[in-house]
Amino acid sequence: MISESIKSALEESAAELCLGRxxxxxxxxxxxxxxxxxxxxxxxxxxxxxxEFIHTGDKRLIELLENNSIFQHGLDGFALHxxxxxxxxxxxxxxxxxxxxxxxxxxxxxxxxPNKMDSAQFSEAINLGLIFxxxxxxxxxxxxxxxxxxxxxxxxxxxxxxxxxxMGVHYEWLTGDLKASRALIVDEGSLVKEVDFNDPAGLDVVxxxxxxxAGERSLHQKLSRAxxxxxxxxxxxxxxxxxxxxxxxxxxxxISRGINTPHAFxxxxxxxxxxxxxxxxxxxxxxxxxxxxxxITLFVQPDHGTEGRMVEAFDLCENxxxxxxxxxxxxxxxxxxxxxxxxxxNVRYCKExxxxxxxxxxxxxxxxxxxxxxxxxxxxxxxxxxNNPVASRGRGGSIIDIHEALExxxxxxxxxxxxxxxxxxxxxxxxxxxxxxxxxxxLDEEFADDDKLKLLGVDVLLEYKxxxxxxxxxxINPRLAGLNHSASIDNQEYYVSRDIFDYxxxxxxxxxxxSGKLVASGEGVTEK
Length: 528
Hints:
By secondary structure, the chain is of the alpha+beta class. The protein has helices spanning about 1-15, 30-45, 50-55, 60-65, 70-75, 80-85, 85-105, 140-155, 215-230, 240-245, 245-255, 275-290, 325-335, 400-405, 425-445, 500-510; strands at about 110, 125-130, 165-170, 180-185, 190-200, 205-210, 235, 265, 295-300, 310-315, 340, 345-350, 360-370, 375-380, 400, 410-415, 420, 455-465, 470-475, 485-490. It has 16 helices and 20 strands. Helix 1 (about 1-15) crosses helix 2, helix 2 (about 30-45) packs across helix 7 and helix 12 (about 275-290) packs across helix 13. The longest helix has 19 residues, at about 275-290.
């Protein structure tokens, strides 16, 4: 059984690493095999918990591996006994196996280096730390996208500018003086691996992203304040993110600049059912004055929220039963202010006919280049089926390529009562980009250039009218997730952005090395 488990783990490791005929097991590759091997042992009941593997001292494994020609040539004399006896290394491998098991067999593994790296080799580069809070194995694709964009940006510049060294740093890997004791890096083989540094690596600039949903904003505030006090530049400092997190605050800013957004209302938290009923009576009167007797759909959600949590849609008309609407408002009000927004966007996505015409939201990534905001990349999120009003992944939605999305969108033709295909023109895409850039600028206009958010995700709905696409800004996201799904809007082969790297090189070159300072008193940085 042991030999069969080794064979199976070998095959799965080779397939995941896409190594083909290359000798498989270098030192940094071994953790991928071990994660699969532990899973095999669990599957066959040889061990009952991943942590048992640390203490088994599996001599049969060592004997079989050392007699395997792949290992004899691949490990290049590396002491397998010493590696399996290294509890620090094995604890990381076991954690990888445990979390990979929770995430599912198809989730990626992670190459973990057993050797420490000399951080001094990065001294001539701009060290960009992507500060994340998800599991390291799930952050690999995001890191890889940033790395590829940096390489393309650096090559295309053809200048003496500094290279940017992109590292993924879990916030728990930060030292007391905010250096990286450990990081995910992309090695010379263009593969991601986790390394410990012999001396912690200093960070020149940071981007805070993919934090745990529970306590996301407070953790962002804490990290941002700490980096500010150390004068470490930030791509997404906390103060300008406050209004983006507050959806109604963002709507007010956008509306004041004439930017198309949903018609929205904000209800206070912690009110009674009867209080919310009175609020809704006044809102209903305003809605009738604006929309007449036409039926509308009203979304109810927390004013601060993400991934579609507690977002529900309700059809409003004179004879509709408002009890379920009021119950959801009351429930929402127990944890946050309740945001009510009138549904906008009549464009739907349809490629798989069996899933129908589904709701779709476009995510446009907007980067600051030192002078203005530029929209360069994005993706789309589509609802799981046509009866689901929410497209977020947290509600079963999926992410698709932005170009595929634009080629498969439809609108309801009111005259024929049938779906008609939308043929997207370049001017339509330019309108989407311009709307996202305007929204980013409106949100950040009160902040000095160095203190702005340097990278934002703008969610855009589309309305089709008179053979023309009208973008509508749904919300703005200060901590971007899903960047590994992004593609250049203009087919320039960048995943995220070229401009963010040009900006980082420029501030390094000119010595303007500050960003995101918090007010010392903490004024304006409070949570509702």
